[in-house]
TrEMBL record:
Protein source organism: Bifidobacterium callimiconis
Places the protein is found: Membrane
InterPro entries referenced in this protein's UniProt entry, alphabetically: K_chnl_dom, VG_K_chnl, Volt_channel_dom_sf
Alphabetic keyword roster: Ion channel, Ion transport, Membrane, Transmembrane, Transmembrane helix, Transport
Entry's Gene Ontology BP terms: action potential
Full protein name: Potassium transport protein
Length: 304
């Protein structure tokens, strides 16, 4: 590297900064609101609106107030909130055509006035939020969701069918207790047939409850099957672990016995070698004594 290269680099760097530097009068780019952000901001407010709608709608159906101006006003305001949420969500979606066809049910609950009881399905947002914030395991969250969904479907279905059936001339559901019983047997797909809706709106509610009940039964069946499979796998794993531990213990005992046998044989060989060595030492000492005696006799002078 020669001495001119640092100078070239120092001359190039200001040009790079000049190219990438923003213009002083350039317009600022604002972050576009996304559908996920909108859902996050409106999740709890829309859930609260659904709860208020449930309370007001229940009061209007069960209490039968003489004047419904206040209750109708509140429900109309909530309807405007739902309609606004639908329109904004459609505008913010990346693929509006796909989002439109995917949320036809939401469109029906906003456009069709006779489906206003189905706006109560917004209450399922509560279960979704609670599931996300819960620290329970997946099976526990599913159990909470199923129990909450069944309870809500029975109450909402009973309320909706009682609303559309109470003034029908050929009605079979005379009070809210009959409506709750009918909703319960419909959701559980038992269907005794002692009560049945006679209006087309009531039959539409019945169809929705039947479909919801079948779906929930499928979820419960899958959850129970998953639990059984998990218990079987745990049992098999415990049995395998127990068998493996017994086999390892048996192999360790055999290795210990073989090691003890080898040690005993080695000690016996060492004792035998020690005995042979002692015998050899004794023989050597005896031979040394004989040799020294013979040398002494040989070196003794003759006195004759």
């Amino acid at each position: 590297m020669n001495g001119t290269e640092p100078t070239k680099v120092s001359n190039i760097m200001p040009k790079i900064h000049e190219i990438h530097a923003p213009e002083p009068n350039a317009p600022k780019h604002h972050t576009r609101l996304t559908l996920d952000q909108w859902r996050k901001w409106t999740e709890w407010p829309m859930t609260g609106a659904a709860v208020v709608f449930l309370v007001v709608y229940s009061y209007q159906v069960l209490a039968r107030p003489a004047s419904t101006i206040v209750t109708e006003t509140i429900m109309n305001v909530i309807w405007v909130m739902f309609a606004t949420d639908y329109i904004v969500s459609l505008i913010l979606s990346d693929n509006r055509q796909f989002w439109f066809f995917r949320h036809l049910f939401d469109l029906a609950t906003v456009v069709l006035p006779m489906l206003r009881p189905l706006r109560l399905l917004r209450l399922f947002m509560v279960l979704k939020v609670l599931n996300r914030t819960s620290g329970l395991a997946l099976r526990g969250r599913i159990a909470i969701y199923v129990v909450g969904a069944v309870t809500m479907m029975i109450y909402v279905g009973a309320l909706a069918v009682y609303d559309v059936e109470q003034y029908a001339p050929t009605r079979q559901i005379d009070d809210f207790g009959d409506a709750v019983w009918w909703a319960f047997v419909t959701v559980t797909t038992v269907g005794y047939g002692d009560y049945a809706p006679t209006t087309w709106q009531g039959r539409l509610v019945a169809a929705a409850l039947m479909l919801g009940g079948i779906t929930l039964i499928g979820v419960v069946s899958a959850m129970v099957a998953s639990w059984i499979m998990e218990r079987v796998q745990v049992g098999d794993q415990k049995a395998f672990t127990k068998t493996f531990e017994a086999q390892m213990s048996r192999e360790l005992d055999e290795d210990a016995q073989e090691s003890a046998t080898r040690d005993a044989n080695l000690e016996a060989k060492i004792d035998a070698l020690s005995a042979q060595l002692a015998q050899l030492i004794a023989e050597r000492d005896t031979n040394a004594v004989h040799d020294s005696s013979a040398d002494a006799l040989t070196k003794r002078p003759d006195r004759t």
